[in-house]
Amino acid sequence: MTDNNKWVACWGNATSITNRREAIYAKDLTLRYPVRMCFSGSMLRFRFSNLTGTEPVVLSKVYVNHTPITFDGDTKVTLMPGKEVESDAINYAVNRGDTIEVSFYLPDFTQMNSGTLITGPLSKGFYAYGDFAEADELPLDLTRHTNWFYFLNTIDVLTSAENHAIVCYGDSITAQSWPDYLAQLAFGSHAAIIRRAVSGTRILRQYDCITYQAYGLKGSTRFPIEMNVAGATDVIIQHGINDIIHPVGTDVNPFRPWSDLPTVEEMEHGVEDIYVKPAKAMGLKVWSGTLLPIYGWRTYNEDREKMRQAFNEWLRTSPVFSGCIDFDAAVRSVTNPKAFADGYDSGDHLHPSERAYEAMAQAAAHKLIRYTPRYDHEEFF
Questions:
Q1: Which residues touch 361 (CB under 8 Å, ≥6 apart)?
Q2: Which long-range contacts (CB under 8 A, 24 or more apart) does 213-221 make?
Q3: Which residues on adjacent β-strands are paired with residue 149?
Q4: Are strands 90-94 and 6-12 parallel, antiparallel or unpaired?
Q5: Phi, psi (degrees; rounded to nearest 5) at 68
Q6: C-alpha gyration radius of the chain
């Protein structure tokens, strides 16, 4: 029998400022998030985050399936502004391939500031009007699907020692599908894929206006918080394209001055100082991920392309990394390397298509996913 003696993150997302719309409060709402287990284990623990909130958030009922999740023995928890809370360790046996459902109820007016928008085949949540945290199924007529993941930040499993976590860190490219496809490729190995990605984020800058607040925190603020990942051994850094494409000048957009445009050298120093050195101090291997094509994007010009190419060359060759995952090479056109290959452009000339995200996942799996012979009878699919 395998001993379960190591906590490893088996699911995780970043927490950021949610998009500022007309309504930022919810009341009498149940949120439910199904999560597929990548490992077998004997206990679970859960982290909830109100990192970017400015008011306390009360979760009056919190369940994993029908089992209460407790916090210092209490079934109710208050998430204070700017804080994260870890649950008690819950005796809850899981097998690899099981789907657990984390459900929690928001009884009173709740500020919905803390969450993140993610997509992919494994990333699907639900909300229902009313208190259904304990229900077997959410009522069809009161329920809708959501890709916003509020408050739930990380799930850890007490599992066997050979299991570990790989962190995917980045912006909207990583908030979309490739980490889910990588998780599918890694299923059956000893690796969990933990996503720490926020759309619109930059290495060196952040926005402090409600128009772009959802574009998230800058790297030096994000990284120390988001790298709280049990059992992590590796981190993939795919970040920096927004530093290049965002500035347009205050005559075009008052929030996007040209002074925000860094040099390539500043980006390199930022990655090394903000990401690589702290990650290595945590004992992690750090993998660079090249930036994808932007030809045809609305702020594209040749100067930005030169910056991307120079930065990618550094990502490919710098000895500060354990290696490079060349996402650019996996998705670019052979005949026009500035652009996506046919069928690999989502249509906006910045974000990949689903086929391209699968290609990115395959490039990462080739470097990082190592399979070992299996001698059990677990089903894997």
A1: 178, 179, 181, 182, 184, 185
A2: 213/17, 213/20, 214/16, 214/17, 214/18, 214/19, 214/20, 215/242, 216/14, 216/16, 216/17, 217/16, 217/17, 217/52, 219/270, 219/274, 219/275, 220/274
A3: 116
A4: unpaired
A5: -65, 140
A6: 21
In which residue are the tokens 């994260």 written?
A: 84
Supply the DSSP string of 179-225, one letter for each residue: HHHHHHHHTTSSEEEEEEE-TT--SS----STTTGGG---HHHHHHH
Query: What are the tokens at 304?
Result: 């930005």
**Strand-pair category, 99-106 with 29-36:** antiparallel
On whether the CB atoms of residues 44 and 89 are closer than 8 A, the answer is yes
Tracing tokens 């650019």 back to the chain, one arrives at 328
Q: Token pair for residue 292?
A: 């994808």
Can you tell me the distance from the alpha carbon of 381 to that of 372, in angstroms, rounded to the nearest whole number? Answer: 16
Q: What does the pLDDT read at residue 378?
A: 38
Close Cβ partners of 222 (under 8 Å, ≥ 6 residues apart): 14, 196, 198, 201, 216
Segment 251-256 long-range contacts (CB within 8 Å, at least 24 positions apart): 255/207, 255/209, 255/211, 255/212
Angle at 220 between CA 318 and CA 176, to 5 degrees: 75
Tens-digit pLDDT profile for residues 3-57: 889 999 999 999 999 987 888 999 999 999 999 999 999 999 999 999 999 999 9
pLDDT in tens, 157-189: 999 999 999 999 999 999 999 999 999 999 999
* Chain CA centroid to CA 229, Å: 12
Question: pTM for this one?
Answer: 0.94
Residue 24 identity (one-letter amino acid) = I
Residue 294 region by backbone torsions, left for phi larger than 0, else alpha for psi between -120 and 50, else beta: alpha
Terminal CA-CA length for the chain:
23
Q: Are 167 and 237 in contact (CB under 8 A)?
A: no
CB 142 within 8 A of CB 125: no
- Name the percent of the chain in helix, strand, coil, to the closest 5: 25, 30, 45
